[in-house]
Structure formats: structure tokens, C-alpha cells
Specification:
Order of helices and strands: HHHHH
Distance between the termini: 41 Å
Mean pLDDT: 94
Structural class: mainly alpha
Number of strands: 0
Helix content: over 70%
Largest sheet: none
Shape: elongated
């Protein structure tokens, strides 16, 4: 499965899943009124710090900074 998937999409299934998850998280951060804790829990992060670390790795910034850049409250 993994080989065929990579042939079609150009990335591993794991990378594809992380990419989709990142897109959904970014959308929630920018377009929802949910708190960072609520979004963290929705995506089943063990802690808000783990959520912060994920966002730093995927987006290069924290969830709070993403919201501030869009003019939204944390």
C-alpha cells in the first residue's frame, strides 16, 4: 500500500495524514472561536504544550501567534 500511495501522491501515507491534520488545525485556528485548549483536545493532543510543539514544527509558529496574525483572540 505504502509504495503505491507514494507513487500516486509523492509522499508517504504518514506525511499525507500529517498534512491533512495540519490543514484542519490551521482552519480551526483561523476560522473558529474555540479556545486553543478546546482545539488541542479536539485533535487529541496530550497537552496544550504538545499542541504548541506540533504547530511550531508544522507552521513555524505557535497557535497563539497564528491567531494574533489574523487579528483573532487567543
Amino acid at each position: 500500500f505504502g509504495v503505491k500511495f507514494k507513487e500516486v501522491f509523492g509522499i508517504s501515507p504518514y506525511q499525507w495524514l500529517i498534512s491533512r491534520r495540519s490543514e484542519r488545525i490551521y482552519y480551526r485556528l483561523v476560522y473558529s472561536n474555540h479556545s486553543l485548549k478546546e482545539i488541542s483536545e479536539e485533535f487529541r493532543f496530550g497537552s496544550v504544550q504538545h499542541f504548541n510543539d506540533f504547530c511550531k514544527k508544522q507552521f513555524g509558529t505557535t497557535p497563539g501567534q497564528i491567531r494574533q496574525a489574523k487579528g483573532l483572540p487567543n
